[in-house]
Amino acid sequence: MKIQVRLRAPNGQARLEIEDEASLRELVELIKKKSDLSNFSLKYGYPLKNLDISPSAQSTTLVKDLQLRGETIVVAPIDTAPPPAAVEVEAPKEFTPKGIEPDETSLEWPERNGYIVLRVMPDDNSCMFTAFGGALGLENPSVTLRRQVAEYILEHPENYSKAILGDDPERYTTGIQQMDTWGGAIELSILSDIYNIEISSIDVKTLRVDRFGENKENRVVILYSGIHYDRIAFCMDLSYPVEVDVTRWQADDDEVLSKALELAKRLQNLHYYTDTTDFVIKCEICNWIGQGARDASKHEAETKHSMFGEMKIQ
């Protein structure tokens, strides 16, 4: 008997058909051909979990033992290039506009015996990708998601023209794969389609909820604070590591969204956002100084510089 599974890889999506009596090794070889990759990890299920493809597992496991019928297998490339020579680099800064205390980033949720919490992402121009990818448990999410977004855009030219992107698709997709390029609404919409999940983005300043991918079964929640994205999570105890956070919920679980909005309201009162209409911004590459998002966009178009920071005015 044959089974079908869906494959989601950097080079696109595909359906695989394989005999359930086939070995795991045969499945892995089929995935290599479909994904054009030779070294990768595999994840499946909800929440995502690793599929053991070690040599011993491949030689002793049959496909039917894995219960993969109808599952989606996510292919995560493993970089085998030799590591570059060690250099000292400054660790990404945590984003803390106006300053905020750690105990102000959580709300007790007694009805569910835990807390709704804000997980602050590094201020490294990849915060949106890290916030979303971390919610799915992806390894090295920024590199993977940037590549997947670029490939999706090029595979759907009818939906992502120059008029929609504001730039030639080839240039846009080259730019979005650069680690210093910010992601936004276009990327969130695409990631919702790729991973078949609703992304609810709460704007701290306005408390508006932008929902990308409505009518999907599951949801993740992120927080937008003007020039930065963070992740919303649930934990049973504030001392627990983030690895045990709950970051995905049923899309009809409106209590989660209500609790996240309650936390966003607290953060709004603490001015945990950057007003992009008039904030003073500095280019971290050339020290140019401007005001507001419009100036920043103009400077980026003229120079291709995209590393900005808000200047604190005393």
From TrEMBL:
<feature type="domain" description="OTU">
    <location>
        <begin position="116"/>
        <end position="235"/>
    </location>
</feature>
<dbReference type="InterPro" id="IPR003323">
    <property type="entry name" value="OTU_dom"/>
</dbReference>
<keyword id="KW-0863">Zinc-finger</keyword>
<dbReference type="GO" id="GO:0030968">
    <property type="term" value="P:endoplasmic reticulum unfolded protein response"/>
</dbReference>
<dbReference type="Pfam" id="PF02338">
    <property type="entry name" value="OTU"/>
</dbReference>
<dbReference type="GO" id="GO:0005829">
    <property type="term" value="C:cytosol"/>
</dbReference>
<dbReference type="InterPro" id="IPR048857">
    <property type="entry name" value="OTU1_Ubl"/>
</dbReference>
<protein>
    <recommendedName>
        <fullName>Ubiquitin thioesterase OTU</fullName>
        <ecNumber>3.4.19.12</ecNumber>
    </recommendedName>
</protein>
<keyword id="KW-0833">Ubl conjugation pathway</keyword>
<keyword id="KW-0963">Cytoplasm</keyword>
<comment type="function">
    <text>Hydrolase that can remove conjugated ubiquitin from proteins and may therefore play an important regulatory role at the level of protein turnover by preventing degradation.</text>
</comment>
<keyword id="KW-0378">Hydrolase</keyword>
<dbReference type="Pfam" id="PF21403">
    <property type="entry name" value="OTU1_UBXL"/>
</dbReference>
<dbReference type="GO" id="GO:0008270">
    <property type="term" value="F:zinc ion binding"/>
</dbReference>
<dbReference type="InterPro" id="IPR038765">
    <property type="entry name" value="Papain-like_cys_pep_sf"/>
</dbReference>
<keyword id="KW-0479">Metal-binding</keyword>
<dbReference type="GO" id="GO:0004843">
    <property type="term" value="F:cysteine-type deubiquitinase activity"/>
</dbReference>
<dbReference type="GO" id="GO:0016579">
    <property type="term" value="P:protein deubiquitination"/>
</dbReference>
<dbReference type="GO" id="GO:0005634">
    <property type="term" value="C:nucleus"/>
</dbReference>
<keyword id="KW-0862">Zinc</keyword>
<keyword id="KW-0788">Thiol protease</keyword>
<keyword id="KW-0645">Protease</keyword>
<dbReference type="GO" id="GO:0036503">
    <property type="term" value="P:ERAD pathway"/>
</dbReference>
